[in-house]
Structure formats: structure tokens, C-alpha cells
Amino acid sequence: MAKHEKRVIFTAEEIARQVELLASRISADYAGKEVVLIGVLKGAFIFLADLVRQLTIPIQLDFVRVASYGTGTESSGKIRITTDVELDLQGLDVLIVEDIVDSGLTTAFLKQHLATRKARSVKICTLIDKRERRAVSIPLEYVGLQLEKGFVVGYGLDCNEANRQLPGIYELIL
Ligand code: IMP
User: CB count, 10 Å around CB of 82?
Assistant: First the structure.
């Protein structure tokens, strides 16, 4: 893969501030309840790890893995579950934790999939809301950062599996 130049879009400090704000909103909104956080692998792993450590409500945790972007920066257009949630979600409040919502197709698919598990509620928390290629209208209850366009890496997000470990978020100069 060709090496791309990168420029910082969100520093580690900006991300930490937004994660803290999200955690306090979620803790307030779900006060007195238990919430099941479902991390969407692999991109949400750092965000989820930082978020849960700031929540003040009881949680359960599970993961789902979907294949949507095969390689590179273009969507394959197909979404399928490769690792499914194992917890019984019946009657529970579920929060899907995403790294980034782009077209919205993955999130819409997951929301529908989890609704069939008879959860009491299914809401979305995404670190980044990227609007450029939104194809479906989907309510995003918790958004950390807004991004108009571009392909970003770092803080869990990758391009061909590279750059997940960067503490900040960078735009690739394609
Ligand atoms: P959507 O179905 O188009 O909303 O795509 C959602 C998924 O695409 C995310 O969970 C990411 O895995 C991937 N994705 C979309 N945009 C980016 C990006 O800028 N950087 C890294 N991954 C991205």
C-alpha cells in the first residue's frame, strides 16, 4: 500500500475532552439504569475503552464485528456480521458504540439487527459523525466529533489495518 501523508484533525486532548462530555451525558441519561454497550469492532476499541472508564452507571459489555469496508478507503457496499453479540439483550437498554458513521448503512443495519433481539431501546453513540456520504437518515443520539469529509485514521480507526494506534485522529491526504 502506498504511504499517505497525514494531517492532524483532532488531537488526543480534544478527543479526551469529547469522550468525557459524552460519558457524562450518557451517565446522566441512563441514571438508575443499566446499559449494554456494544462496541463495533475493530475501530471502536479505543473509544469504547476510554468511554467505559468514565461512565458512572452500571454496564454490560459486548462486541459485534461487521465487514463493510474490505480494504482501503472505499466501501465494499456490502455489510455482513462476522462476529455476533453473545449477550441476551431482551428487555435491556442497548447503546451501539461506533468509531465513525459515514454512509450510515452499517449503523442502520446494526440497529435493525439488534432490534430483533427484543432490546428495550437501541441508541447510537459514535465518536465521529462524517456527513459527506450519508446515504440513510439515522438518528445519532451521542456524537463526539463532527467531520464534514475526508478519510481519517488513528484512535482505533485504520486504513488497511494501519495507524490504529495513533493517539490523535489524522486525515489521510489521498
Ligand atoms: P458506513 O456504513 O459507511 O457508515 O461506514 C462505517 C464504517 O466504515 C466505520 O465503522 C469504519 O469502519 C469505516 N469508515 C468510514 N469512514 C472511515 C474513515 O474515515 N476512516 C476509517 N474508517 C472509516
Answer: 9
User: Closest ligand 1 atom, CA of 98?
Assistant: 10
Q: How many residues comprise the chain?
A: 174
Tens of pLDDT, residue by residue, the chain (174 residues)? 557 899 999 999 999 999 999 999 999 999 999 999 999 999 999 999 999 999 999 999 999 999 875 555 666 567 899 999 999 999 999 999 999 999 999 999 999 999 899 999 999 999 999 998 999 999 999 999 999 999 999 999 999 999 999 999 999 998
Quote the ligand 1 centre to 32 CA distance (angstroms). Answer: 33
Contact residues of ligand 1, CB 6 A cut-off:
40, 43, 68-69, 75, 98-107, 130, 151-153, 157
pTM over 0.85: yes
Strand (E) or helix (H) holding 52: helix 45-52
